[in-house]
Amino acid sequence: MTDTDTRTDGRGDTRSRLLDAAEALFAERGSESVSLREIGRAAGARNVIAAQYWFTDRDGLLKALIDRHRPEIEAARHALLDEYEAALAAGTAGDADARIAALAGALVRPSAVKLDQGASGAGYLRTVADLLTRPEPQTEPLGYDVEGGSILRWRALLEPLLDPDAVVLHRRFHVIRFVDVELAQRARAPGRRDHRLFVSQLVDSAAGLLSARTSEETRRLRAERNER
């Protein structure tokens, strides 16, 4: 690694430039179709293996990109969950439908802010969707299971409001994935500037999915599966 690759200049240090380049390329093409060498070239790194130097491998780069955005989203979601719990304590949270709607908003709105952050936000949203739509979804880089994280807190607050069968059948994860994929798709749409209607409808859709009752067919099939 050369001195040029490790210094801090007007564009930021090499690590930051690599992440900037990754976000821009992922926003255009998704995280699965961009090589580490392409990212290095786009960042202007002289060493062709600059990305490997800084992040070891693709998973390391993806985690670093996620970590770059996660504190902002975590803080925003925790703030909304604080408001929800305060309303519960004050007796002003409303009925079950109103509570589910509030929790749907706490899931959607912190991530939806990324729609207004250009290529950086779009690259993040597409990376999250790519991780969740792999044949084996990858949640570890997203921090969804981290103790004290906002998603674990959200899951715990939501569980008492859900159909018990929906809990067992991973309804919460399905809704998380639905929301993240929809946000990533929106980020790909050119020329969209006002996201308010989209975000409001996404909150409504997430709330509807969360509150849906489990059908008798689904209950029967689950029982049959458990008997095998």
UniProtKB/TrEMBL annotation:
InterPro entries: Homeodomain-like_sf, HTH_TetR. Keywords: DNA-binding. GO terms for molecular function: DNA binding. Residues 18-45 form the HTH tetR-type domain. The keyword Protein biosynthesis does not apply. Pfam families: TetR_N. This is HTH tetR-type domain-containing protein.
